Amino acid sequence: MRKLRRFEQRIKEFQAVTGDGMEKGTCAISWATVQDEDWSDNWKKYFHPEKVGGMIVIKPTWEDYTASPDDIVIELDPGAAFGTGTHPTTAMCIRELETLVRGGMRVFDVGTGSGVLSIAAAKLGATDVTAMDYDRTAVNVAEENIRQNRLDGQIKTGVSDLLKSFEGKADLIVANIIADIIIRLFDELDEHLAEHGQLLASGIISERLADVTAACIAHGFVVDKVIEEKRLGGNGHQPWRREMRRLFYKGLLQDTIEITGADAHHLMHVMRARPGQEIIVVDDENQVARMEMTAFCETAVTLTLRERLAADTESPIQLVLAQCLLKADKMDFVVQKAVELGAVGVVPVRSQNCVVRYDAKKAAGRRDRWQKIADEAAKQCGRTALLSVEPVTDIEDFLQQEAACGRYRADLLL
Predict the structure, then answer these.
(1) Buried b vs exposed e over 9-19: b needs ≥16 C-beta within 10 Å?
(2) Is beta strand 170-176 parallel, antiparallel or unpaired with respect to 106-110?
(3) CA–CA distance, 380 with 371 (Å, rounded to integer)
(4) Which of 149, 295, 388, 397 could serve as a FRET partner for 197 with CA atoms 20 to 30 Å apart?
(5) CB–CB of 314/385 below 8 Å?
(6) What pLDDT does residue 47 have?
């Protein structure tokens, strides 16, 4: 609260300055204190017991459930952590764990979230399980869920950036995260994956599968199998299908468009699209269409319009996140979540309290990395607009630039 009041005072002082040649707009700042429990309980009415595998049943701690003799029931309260167990990527991992885990196995869970995958592994027979996350809040949630399932003597927990705090080698490493983080994970597998061990990775969208596969092969590993699934909307048991490919087109949609350059290469060699396959295309004005690949050559792909679609996934609020630079992969996580929450831009800022050392020589590379993460997240969560990652700027310069435009946007400044 003190920081918000100090920020408000700085805005007032800036507006009071005269003779600087700037035409300042009005700025009204308001805030409210929201307790975690105000939002963390509202979603519970939509979370009910569900059998996500052949044996594993996810049961919310506040719900009743009569188990059958073959059920393995996990008591779960995700709280503020990711991992209800029913999300498609989590459910896919659980079903694979049912076939991969053997009695006495040692398992590492990287980015454990609610701890659901570690609990599943332990209940399936793994006797030595370690669950870690870089977010202390997630670790606290995982520890409570582990206690709820009476597995605190079987599962160790802790805070870790990827595998850095894990000790020894595991027979199976589970990572339900995103492609860029999984690619980084390969650098640490030699030290932590036992001979003939396996990595179960999830959270990889189809457009990044080739990148993850390349990293896997470059580090001397072999891809055992690939499973790609997406749950359809609705209740009850629904079929599973491959997600339709999505392309952001630099231009305006026409009845026929030609894709060239890097996008054409991506379509043909990464997405491996071929004539007859359909692709969701989003143009520069956020128009969305279902298009069919009708022709291709070595340098170009032709797409033909089949159906214009309603672009109803974008918020009418133009939210820009001004985020002070963060350590390690925390900035990657913030960019990803900003996309999922509907932001249109992220401005990395430096302030006097920023603990991250700014390196101008690496700034462009880091911005490119964050933009790539933003683009991937937009495709994965169904956005029809790409978030723009702006160059790193000083917080004072950011505020002055906004004032020079005659406005202060409804930005969230952290």
Answers:
(1) eebeebeeeee
(2) parallel
(3) 14
(4) 149
(5) yes
(6) 64
Q: Say if CB 133 and CB 112 are below 8 A apart.
A: yes
Q: From 1.10.1240.10, 1.10.150.120, 3.40.50.150, 3.40.720.10, which CATH number describes the 42-231 domain?
A: 3.40.50.150
| Dist CA 376 CA 207 (whole Å) | 8
Say what the pLDDT of residue 11 is. 80
Domain map (residue ranges) of the chain: 42-231, 244-309, 314-413
Is 185:164 a contact under the CB 8 Å cutoff? no
Mean pLDDT of 165-187: 91
Task: Indicate the residue type of 61.
Answer: T
Q: Return the residue matching tokens 């570690």.
A: 118
CA distances from 373 to 81, 82, 200, 325, 369 (A): 21, 18, 21, 16, 6
Bridge partner residues of 174 (DSSP): 109, 200
User: For residue 272, how many other CB atoms are within 10 A of its CB?
Assistant: 12
CATH, domain range 314-413: 3.40.1280.10
Tokens for 290?
Answer: 């279902």
- What tokens were used for 51? 């059998």
**With contact defined as beta carbons under 8 Å apart, do 141 and 80 qualify?**
yes
Strands 320-324 and 412-413 come out as parallel
Q: HSE (CB half, 13 Å, CA atoms) of 56?
A: 30
b/e per residue 133-160 (b: at least 16 CB within 10 A): bbbeebbebbbbbbebbebeebbbbbeb
Do 314-413 and 244-309 have the same topology in CATH? no
pLDDT in tens, 307-323: 888 766 677 777 888 88
Q: Quick one: pLDDT at residue 235?
A: 27
Amino acid at 118: S
Other beta carbons within 10 Å of 242 = 9
Helix (H, G, I), strand (E, B) or coil at 315: coil
Mean per-residue pLDDT for 324-346?
Answer: 84
Q: Give the pLDDT confidence score for residue 255 in this predicted structure.
A: 92
Find, among 343, 364, 354, the residue nearest to 412 by Cα: 343
Which tokens go with 168?
């020894």
End-to-end CA distance of the chain: 12
List, as one string, the DSSP characters of 141-209: HHHHHHHHTT-TTTEEEEE-STTTT--S-EEEEEEES-HHHHHHHHHHHHHHEEEEEEEEEE---GGGH
